[in-house]
Write a structure and sequence with these properties.
Helix content: 25-40%
Structural class: alpha+beta
CATH architecture of one domain: Alpha-Beta Complex
Low-confidence stretches: none
Number of helices: 12
Largest sheet: 11 strands, mixed
Radius of gyration: 22 Å
Distance between the termini: 70 Å
Mean pLDDT: 88
Length: 390
């Protein structure tokens, strides 16, 4: 267990800086859970037990310990994670922070509401909430407190841009972001949204005709017919690659750049992929409790942050080619960090003793494939005057 003890003490040093632990034993158990997740590459309490070094002899004892931790009401997820992610973002710098809101359904029974910070092609969790809910569409009052809490964790005087899909299309959210939090936003809306242009007849977005690659920019209009809201701005387009219709609403004047900015939202999809089929195998978990799932998200969030920062430092120190077979970066920072940790455990490399994320421009952007790069280059839009569909 010499190798696991090495990473265990490193995690204790990094996570122990937070003074919010009700019981120091909670920190010790969390560290072993992170180690189990990294080693086994899946969420399974039974598979994690083999990597725990303690006085207990039987695997069942370790399993009960992990299960008690997940179901322990004394473990307040946000109170523990908030100082950790706040410290991680404190070194962000002057760059704009892009937050992405999204929801994910688990077994058609639980809804995971997540807000993450976009980071170099992926996203790192900032805050979340798990509720028993059979739909991914949720009302603003369910996550209002989550947004308020997250706003206190961000660096002061840093511009914030919030991105979200159609499930967050709510005028209450737009008003709260702009007037209460001072954030900018790019939110996708549905095609049945009513637009009220000044001095003209109201119409729905689906009444507008868009060919592939067409874009329409609307400035200073009100939306919704029952209780008009605004003035807001919209960027409408039909994606030439996916053929999807994009209806993006913004608090700032829209341009073609608005569409590119909204496209950054898809980075959180990669985060969910890392947590599910491409990484942690969340959907294979047998946990069926909202609070226990929220604590399980804490384990995944800390693991993601730890591995992403390791990958960040691997690139920063010029050691990427030691863990990445590609000439240009082909793996995410999380995957680079994961491979580096394996090297620490097998080759005696050293951990990077930090949990701080750097908000500077990515020094080594990923190029996953020439085909994917070509598709990106094909995504071009041309602004046209709109015409109504017949």
């Amino acid at each position: 267990m010499a190798n696991t003890s090495h990473i265990y003490h490193e995690l204790l040093k990094l996570l122990g800086q937070s003074k919010t632990w009700a019981d120091i034993r909670h920190l010790h158990t969390l560290s072993w859970m992170v180690i189990g997740l990294i080693y086994s590459e899946c969420i399974s309490l039974t598979k994690w037990t083999i990597y725990i070094d303690s006085r207990a002899l039987f695997a069942q004892s370790h399993q009960r310990r992990l299960s008690r931790w997940l179901h322990n009401p004394r473990i307040n997820v946000q109170r523990l994670y908030s100082p950790i992610i706040q410290a991680a973002l404190s070194a962000w710098g002057t760059s704009e922070i892009v937050l992405v809101g999204d929801t994910s359904m688990l077994w058609n029974r639980y809804c995971l509401i997540r807000v993450s910070v976009r980071y170099r092609g992926r996203a790192v969790p900032v805050g979340w909430r798990v509720i028993e809910h059979k739909s991914s569409s949720i009302s603003f009052n369910v996550y209002e407190q989550l947004l308020r809490r997250i706003s206190r964790l961000l660096p002061i005087n840093t511009k914030v841009r919030f991105l979200a899909d159609r499930g967050f299309a709510d005028t209450k959210l737009m008003n709260y972001l702009e007037h209460n939090l001072g954030w900018h936003y790019r939110i996708r809306v549905k095609n049945d949204l009513w637009v009220l242009p000044p001095g003209k007849i109201p119409y729905q977005l689906r009444d507008l005709h868009l060919n592939l690659g067409d874009a329409i920019l609307l400035q200073g209009v009100k939306i919704t017919k029952t209780i008009p809201y605004g003035l807001v701005n919209l960027a409408l387009a039909r994606d030439p690659v996916s053929h999807e219709l994009w209806y993006i609403i913004s608090d700032e004047p829209t341009s073609l750049q608005t569409l590119r900015e909204y496209g950054e939202r898809f980075d959180i999809e990669e985060e969910f992929l890392d947590e599910k089929s491409n990484g942690f195998q969340l959907e294979k978990s047998l946990i069926r409790s909202p609070m226990a799932l929220s604590r399980l998200c804490l384990v995944m969030a800390i693991t993601s942050l730890f591995l992403t920062v390791q990958g960040q430092e691997v690139v920063k120190t010029g050691k990427r080619r030691l863990v990445d077979c590609h000439t240009f970066r082909g793996n995410s920072y999380l995957r680079l960090g994961w491979e580096w940790v394996k090297g620490v455990l097998s080759r005696g490399w050293r951990f990077f003793s930090t949990l701080c994320l750097c908000g500077d421009v990515d020094p080594d952007p990923a190029i996953a494939s020439q085909k994917q790069t070509q598709k990106f280059l094909e995504r071009e839009f041309q602004v046209r005057n709109f015409s109504f569909a017949s």
